Amino acid sequence: VEPDLEKGLEMRKWVLSGILASEETYLSHLEALLLPMKPLKAAATTSQPVLTSQQIETIFFKVPELYEIHKEFYDGLFPRVQQWSHQQRVGDLFQKLASQLGVYRAFVDNYEVAMETAEKCCQANAQFAEISEVMGPQNLQQHWSAAHSSLLYLCFWCQDLLKHTPVSHPDHPLLQDALRISQNFLSSINEEITPRRQSMTVKKGEHRQLLKDSFMVELVEGARKLRHVFLFTDLFLCAKLKKQIGGKSQQYDCKWYIPLTDLSFQMVDESEAVPNIPLVPDEELDAMKIKISQIKNDIQREKRANKGSKVIERLKKKLSEQESLLLLMSPNMAFRVHNRNGKSYTFLISSDYERAEWRENIREQQKKCDFSLTSVELQMLTNSCVKLQTVHNIPLTINKEDDESPGLYGFLNVIVHSATGFKQSSNLYCTLEVDSFGYFVNKAKTRVYRDTTEPNWNEEFEIELEGSQTLRILCYEKCYNKTKLTKEDGESTDRIMGKGQIQLDPQVLQDKDWQRTVISMNGVEVKLSVKFTSREFSLKRMPSRKQTGVFGVKIAIVTKRERSKVPYIVRQCVEEIERRGMEEVGIYRVSGVATDIQALKAAFDVNNKDVSVMMSEMDVNAIAGTLKLYFRELPEPLFTDELYPNFAEGIALSDPVAKESCMLNLLLSLPEPNLVTFLFLLDHLKRVAERESVNKMSLHNLATVFGPTLLRPSEKDSKIPANPTQPITMTDSWSLEVMSQVQVLLYFLQLETIPTPDSKRQSILFSTEV
Fold it and tell me: DH domain spans which residues (predicted)?
């Protein structure tokens, strides 16, 4: 016999020894199941039965037969392995075992019912509960699972034996036959039976379970692809939903998987280039949001008009397409996983919270898992994903029920008070995220509290909500020494010390008062207060009753009093931001501390001479916040109530020449202080956007922040209902109005130059030097 063949035949013996050991375990499981059956049956005929004969029949259905089949198989195999020779035949035993799979069929079909009956009997009957406890710590359920999963083994055994059995060996055709029967049987069962959560065996006595799954965007050769990822107890699987053909049920295709034992977040090969993330311009994302709001608006209109469901179905389909596109295009934070051979996979996520959550869950699991997976198992696992998945839909509004809360629209004031529970002193700060349009955005960041275990930030932020349902808080340790931290995802990061979230419940937040709350996150507790003001209250411009001060006073009165072209407050804030805020990430988008803003407001209102000293010591985000507040509190918008409707119509014109002529004429019709102040601000915002690579504020981001602030009309001209029936949720026509305000400002920001008539040009040149 050739050495290779010799080795193969020797391997057969080892495989068979493994099978015998496995069978011994399985038989002991079945024996343990049968142990209480006899006394239970005997008791059933007495006047005090523990279980009825019917219940016993259901719970122990086919177990005695299974025991007989496996006992016969074991008793046949054991002596043959004992008297081993290369000529020894075992194929007939496997063929016979495979031919008796019909008993399994009955056992499997009854499995769910047996489990349910056993669980019910345990709850209802103390004696039976005791019996199932007595059967050792591995109670009934585990015995069942073991019996259930031994089914899989027959396939694997035949496969393993065939690997080491020469084609010429008399066992070969018999084993092939047994494999064919058992595989057909398995696939037929797979389609019909709903796998329980632990349907996949990992190793003796442990079960592969699904821990977490969600939709994610994977970056594949520069293109964004929607994937469904599954984290099991021992592997990370990336799948894609197959296109459904005809009436076939959902199915997944496995794209790749990494055993958790081989998965790392660090690059194996440092020289490997981090893939370039293709960013989608904000304008495109905004166009999608506008479309989404318009379609939602149409759906509401059709519902009110009681139109046929066909129209609504068609609109919902369009909505789903747009929302899927937005979710595919919006995330741009890399989450990378690497396998042992250095192959990397990149996902794009919209929030640091989710990225941290995935890493934590994976690391936690890595501490306690072993791994083995054959190709048959992989196929079965992928098939079972359809039944196991917990996240069935992409997180879109389309999937929400009509009566589900559409989220909150308005302003959320959050005070981040303090935190306790840190083990050692460090430099700590928090960020706040809220969801809108199905994904999370970072909205505010506290200052860094240096060298402490009990930071007292006591900072208040005002966060704008667009259909938000959740507020998240992340606590970070600021790492000043960049080299200390291992690089993950190709960037050095501050370390997340804890994270938590609260649901924003409209019912609870309705009553306008501050609500205190504590968020616990792995040992750390953060104290917060939140207060919500819905849109129609937060965005009212108040008619001017004040003559003194600058906030809430007409701009013409202020400039006349100051003998200036541009109000002093606007010039001061712009100057300070240009001095030290141009490289601040998220300048104008990230909220400043509310108490600082109020202090500056008061100082400007009483014309405090020390205002410039105050400003130089303040966080630059508070100065940006003060400037925004000034424009927001003007009794009439900078673009005036009278001209606002015309601007909204002008921006909607499709002919670019007509649009430019209309928009410029309207702009130049503004009263002089309004026009000069606007042009002064416009130049400043363009300079901010020139530093976009550092401060991450594009013209579009700036337009989003300032559009409503500069254009939103006073109450009488707004399309916002004065006393809406639902005080807390807003219609989508509102979103459309806001988006049109953003478009108007963006239009002027993108114009190369704004030609002005000579008379105005003189005064403008003069004014910017004021």
Answer: 11-192
Give the whole-angstrom CA distance, residue 620 versus residue 587. 8
Quote the DSSP letter at residue 264: B
79-91 per-position pLDDT tens digit: 999 988 888 899 9
Angstrom distance (rounded) from CA 370 to CA 744: 59
Of 57, 336, 315, 376, nearest in space to 185 by CA: 376
pLDDT band at 765 (very low <50, low <70, confident <90, very high): very low
CB neighbour list of residue 497: distance below 8 Å, 6 or more residues apart: 422, 426, 428, 475, 476, 477, 524
Cα–Cα distance, 434 to 417 (Å, whole number): 18
Nearest to 198 by CA among 187, 189, 211, 216: 211
Mean pLDDT of 233-240: 89
CA separation for the pair 688, 511 (Å, rounded): 39
Please state which architecture CATH assigns to domain 408-538: Sandwich (2.60)
Nearest to 741 by CA among 656, 638, 651: 651
What is the per-residue pLDDT across 570-588, written as a single tens digit (0 to 9) for each? 999 999 999 999 999 889 9
User: Measuring CA to CA, which residue among 633, 607, 648 is closest to residue 555?
Assistant: 633
103-145, pLDDT tens digit by residue? 877 777 777 788 778 777 877 777 777 776 655 434 566 666 6
- CA–CA distances in Å: residue 722 to residues 384, 486, 540, 719, 732: 53, 55, 10, 9, 16
Contact (Cβ atoms closer than 8 angstroms) between residue 467 and residue 729? no
pLDDT band at 149 (very low <50, low <70, confident <90, very high): low
pLDDT at 725: 41
Which of the pair, 438 or 99, is modelled with greater confidence?
A: 99
Mean pLDDT across the chain, nearest whole number?
81
Distance of alpha carbon 525 from alpha carbon 586, whole angstroms: 27
Long-range contacts of 26-29 (CB under 8 A, 24+ apart): 26/70, 26/146, 26/147, 26/150, 27/67, 27/70, 27/71, 27/74, 29/143, 29/146, 29/147
477's enclosing H/E stretch is strand 470-477
Q: Which CATH architecture has domain 203-276+332-395?
A: Roll (2.30)
Specify the CATH class of 1-196 in words: mainly alpha
C-alpha distance from residue 470 to each of 223, 349, 502, 520, 661 (Å): 30, 17, 6, 15, 44
The residue assigned the tokens 């499709």 is 654
Q: CA–CA separation, 350 vs 353, rounded Å?
A: 9
Q: Residue 442: its pLDDT value, please?
A: 81
179 contacts: CB under 8 Å, gap ≥ 6 = 98, 155, 158, 159, 162
207: which strand partners? 201
H/E/C letters for each residue in 531-548?
Answer: EEEEHHHHCCCCCCCCCC
Among candidates 234, 235, 238, which has minimal Cα distance to 255?
Answer: 238
User: How many helical (H) and strand (E) elements, i.e. helices and strands, does the chain have?
Assistant: 27, 17
CB atoms within 10 A of CB 759: 8
Quote the CA–CA distance of 337 and 235 in Å, as a whole number: 12
Among candidate residues 514, 498, 528, the one with its CA nearest the CA of residue 416: 528
Please state the domain extents for the chain.
1-196, 203-276+332-395, 280-328, 408-538, 555-715+731-764
CATH node for 555-715+731-764: 1.10.555.10
Averaging pLDDT over each range in 537-541, 670-674, 715-719, which range is the top one? 670-674
Contact 470, 435 (CB under 8 A): yes
Cα(243)–Cα(251) distance, integer angstroms? 8
Distance CA 229, CA 255 (A): 10
* Mean of pLDDT values over 492-516: 83
- pTM exceeds 0.85, yes or no: no
Percentage of the chain lying above the pLDDT 90 cut: 30
CB 415 within 8 A of CB 515: no
